[in-house]
Write a structure and sequence with these properties.
Shape: globular
Radius of gyration: 18 Å
Helix content: 25-40%
Strand content: 15-25%
Low-confidence stretches: 211-252
Oligomer: single chain
Length: 252
């Protein structure tokens, strides 16, 4: 709350605001939330997910003339393994408040494709992704929705976005609605799910010797886009349950 109030006092979210501002704010919120876990949110960093996704496509459908390279993603969620945050476990994408619905749909497809590539790579290392799976965040400015991505038999399925998205207040007048909303409960449920998911991955990687999948450079430059994420069509998958947020992770 102290951080949010400071942002309001500084007028950080007064429109128009770039996508970079929102990405920075949400990554800080995630890292405050995850401070007592081995998971970190790294903003605007290079990810190998796009390279891995391209390789899987070429393996299935044949090579192309397009080049494959690591690309910057809005937020890369990583766990600390052997004192390094190289192991990428999810990608979160954000858009600014001016993004069109079409941009949001393209963004959702990209987010699912890259997170699926990461998930399949973890499965190849021994993770049971029908039981251990990520919660993916997609944001538009100060609003955010979550959905799950997991294996159902022979396919990967995405659960429906949370029924009530969460948000951060942009001005003092929004604080009452923020405190009465489900935002804090949803964020705490998200944290607990991610904590247990990271533990499952760490247990698998301890027994797996090849080089960890993820970022192995320390470049971290800025790159702004203008986009959104409200009212996205629900992907095929499972309904979220009403009431207390719950992401369906099998209890350990």
């Amino acid at each position: 709350m102290n951080q949010i109030i400071l942002w309001i006092e500084l007028g950080m979210f007064v429109s128009p605001t770039s996508e970079h501002v929102y990405v920075t704010a949400w990554s800080l919120i995630f890292n405050i939330l995850l401070v007592d876990t081995n998971t970190r949110a790294i903003p605007r960093t290079y990810s190998k997910a796009s390279t891995l996704a391209r390789r899987r496509m070429e393996t299935a459908f044949g090579s192309t003339t397009s080049t494959s390279c690591d690309r910057k993603e809005d937020i890369s969620i990583r766990i600390r393994v052997e004192n390094q945050c190289k192991t990428e476990i999810a990608i979160f994408e954000f858009k600014s408040s001016t993004a069109t619905m079409e941009i949001c749909r393209r963004q959702q497809k990209k987010s699912m494709r890259l997170s699926a590539a990461i998930l399949l790579d973890l499965e190849a290392r021994g993770l049971d992704i029908s039981k251990s799976f990520p919660v993916i965040a997609e944001g538009k400015a100060l609003s955010m929705n979550f959905y799950t991505l997991r294996r159902f038999d022979d396919v990967l399925g995405a659960g429906r976005p949370t029924r009530k998205g969460i948000f951060l207040p942009s001005q003092v007048e929004d604080l009452k609605a923020f405190l009465e909303s489900n935002t804090m409960m949803t964020l705490l449920a998200f944290k607990e799910h991610l904590r247990r998911y990271a533990i499952d991955i760490t247990d698998v990687l301890v027994a797996f010797t090849p080089t960890s999948f993820g970022y192995d450079n320390n470049e971290d430059e800025d790159e702004d886009e203008d986009d959104q994420i409200d009212d996205l069509p629900s992907p095929l998958g499972t309904e979220t349950q009403p009431g207390t947020p719950h992401f369906g992770l099998t209890q350990q």
